[in-house]
Amino acid sequence: MEKIRPERKPNHRKVLLVLSTLMIFMISYLCLSNGVFIIYQNLFYIPIVYSCFRYARSGLIFSSFISMFHYVLFSIFHPEPLWDEIVRLGVFLAIGLITYRLSEGIKRERLTVEHLNQCLIKDLNARAQLEEHLEQEKERLRITITSIGDGVISTDQRGRITILNQVAERMTGWKQADALGLPIEKVFRIVNEETGDICENPVHKVLELGVTQGLANHTALISQDGTVRSIADSAAPIKNKSGDIQGVIIVFRDVTDEKKRQDEIYFKSFYDALTGMHNRRYFEEEFKRLDVARNLPISIIMGDLNGLKLVNDTFGHARGDKLLMKASSALKTACRCGDIAARWGGDEFVMLLPKTTKAEVEDIVKKILRSCSKMKVGSLNVSVSLGWGTKTEKDESLSKVLKSAEDFMYKHKLAESGSMRGNIIHAIFRTLREKNPRIESHSERVSLLCEQIGTAMNLSAKDINELKVSGLLHDIGKVTIDDRILQKTEKLTEYEWLEIKRHSDIGYRILNTSPDMSDIAVNVLSHHERPDGKGYPRGICGEEIPLASKIIAVADSYDAMTNERPYNKIQNKDEAIEELIKNKETQFDSIIVDLFIEKVLRGRERIKCPSENSP
Predict the structure, then answer these.
(1) Cα distance from N-terminal residue to C-terminal residue, the chain
(2) How confident is the model over 500-551, as pLDDT tens digits?
(3) Which of 317, 473, 596, 602 has its CA 20 to 30 A from that of 608?
(4) 291 and 379 inside one domain
(5) What strands lie across the sheet with 298-305, from one edge to the other?
(6) Could you tell me the superkingdom of the organism this chain comes from (predicted)?
(7) What beta strand segments (E) does 292-378 contain?
(8) Domain containing 324 — which CATH number?
């Protein structure tokens, strides 16, 4: 707004006065030819004219001087006093004095009006500057509120919205134009994100108490489209210079991602990422906290997932992880309110059960075992060994109860380990049969041929039984090999061939987990070794190769040649015999080859193989 300036007017009165005076003197002195009397007559009007045009002190003085001059001049030529001139002089002086007083009053009024005009102009200019400054401040405030990264909502004294910045628009789902004048509760809807209960809006507290208010923890904002966001905020009063509350301003921000990260950090600190159970750190803290008299009796259950290493080695850690999750599910299902279940170690779990008697903990153990017996991961049963103990006295050490439960668990594990491992091995073999039925039939035929060779060699019943089982399980390591490689009809690549060669070592590791299968494991490990030392996986030769492995090698090769396989053409019996003879001393043991041909295939003591009758 432009500053108002007073208008300057030209002083016409002064100009007119000067011109009139000059004109009178010019007329008077131009008339000197008529004598002084003419001058006197003309000068007489000068004070009148001057007083009329000059309402000021200088006008009065000048008028008096001219009048006196006129009288003196007239007295020179007329020595006798003329009372009419004296009276006239007095009248003119009185008129001049009155005129002066009037002119002073008029002048004062004019000055007062001019002063008021100047004050008004100054006031208007000051008001214009103030309005301009106010507009600048408003613009600065608008830019600040718009640019700020947090949501900002301002309300009046009634809690109705006056400002809604862009961040607040995005978070609430309301446009400022639509939200202006609405109650704060309609736009800024907040709830407890854990319970879903509506939270009290902080604006009303601020208006009531006049102090800054913050939101409670776990507060969420529900936008117009139903989106829920975790927020943190504060509401502060807007006060004028007198301290009166003019409204409230709310500043809030979206902490959804921040809260999610905090929850993740908390989860990682106190929970096991795989099973979702509490971890050892959390258990140890609760172990100390709950070890008080009011929680007696306190029971502890220790659990160990059976066969996890075997499953990991055979099927990979993904299958083992599934077993862990199943076992943890059984334990969590058995938990009551107040109980704590945690993952203690790699394959171990622990439960802390406050106010639980010995009888009650035994019932919980039975419940866990029943749940596990109904669970499977593929063909694998979920098997856990459990041990438990109970603290009944205040002075009893809970740590000793934990150790007692752990020892009890290992006793159960040792007692169950044989059957458990056997069950896992059988489950692995079932998996192999389901994966590749051709391997199942091949393994059964090899097992039968091994039995026939063992009988022909007059081996003991124990050795023959071991030989049969070894023949049946000789390819168990193929359970971990990609079925696409096993079924491939084209020539194997170098990588695929290396994968195939791994099955002997894998089979050994699977079987060696069970102590009663250690000899069978050695037989399986060496069934691809050769007398010339060019076999695998160890490259041993001669007498280093177990007898059962030599027998399996002959039976395996004969069955592979005489039955359908993805990678070779079926040969008849004579062709297979010729191939066996050709590779004596290099690939096969010569004594076993001769005995197999003469006594099993051609001799009078021959037992017909299923392969001879197969199409």
Answers:
(1) 110
(2) 999 999 999 888 877 778 899 999 999 999 999 999 999 999 899 999 999 9
(3) 473
(4) yes
(5) 340-343, 348-353, 298-305, 384-391
(6) Bacteria
(7) 298-305, 340-343, 348-353, 376-377
(8) 3.30.70.270
